[in-house]
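hey so i finally got around to running the thing on that chain from the lab meeting. sorry it took forever, my laptop kept dying and i had to restart like 3 times. anyway pasting the input first so we r on the same page abt which one it is
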Amino acid sequence: MDGRLIAGAYSGYAMAGGLVIVIAILICALGTHHLIPKLKLPPDNGPFTFRRLNEDFRDAFSNRAFLTLIVSILTASTAVGLTDALGLYVNTYFWEFTTQQLSLTVLGGLAGTVGAFVLTAPLTARFDKRSMALATLAVIVFVGPLPVLLRLVDLMPANGHPSLIWIIVAHVTIIVFVAVSIGIVVGSMIADTIDQNDLRTGKRQEGMFNAALGFTAKATSGLGGFVAGITLDLINFPTGAKPGEVPPETIYKLGLVVGPGILIFWLAALALMRNYRLTREDHRQVIFEINERDRKKADLDAAFE
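ok and heres what got predicted. didnt touch it at all, straight out
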């Protein structure tokens, strides 16, 4: 398969994905704009100082629940970055898919994304967020590397078999569904830790918490790409090779990396997430105490007016 065709196909998917992201951002902005007057104004702490910045960092990262989430996300994002960087190699050389078949995997990802946005909210309304995060991570741990592991022990259909692409499409749908669900749930969990930190320190640090979350995810995703490059060098993956021309032992080593190798990161993320202890009942108590604190402060301010 011509590498330029593959690159062109992925570029088209990236442009389409970028357009969808822009539209989603605009919809979210317009849909939440009416809530701006209800937002809590930050206190006037005076001019910026590095001392206050250091205090904000200390307050945020001394929150055990938040720190647990950040380290877990760091580990999971490394796995995602490694998977994304090696995905083209896996689909092209490990499974030997054509450009048309690759388009079907994109449709599977789209179905998983839509399903996650439709179903995650009802699921989190019924189940505790911690339980949801652990359950989705467990699915990735057990289902994520399954097709590659089955191929390594010769239990998957041969490359070119009609059923292979549909197995992988179903697999992509499931994995994207749980990955997007994890992102939604973790974002909600971060909001809970912000409330917890507000009760503990009296500060609303949405910007600090979400900036740390975004930076961690982006930085470690890039780290995954860096590790992928080193990995390809270590297994001596040939450059410019066509599907079917890569030595079988190199393909096997690639399978070990994207199967058991990446599984290590997901297992670590699951183990770290188990240390998150802020339950739904705990958060309800936090909100109750914040409301009581604010009510007493309002009553006190009214008494001195």
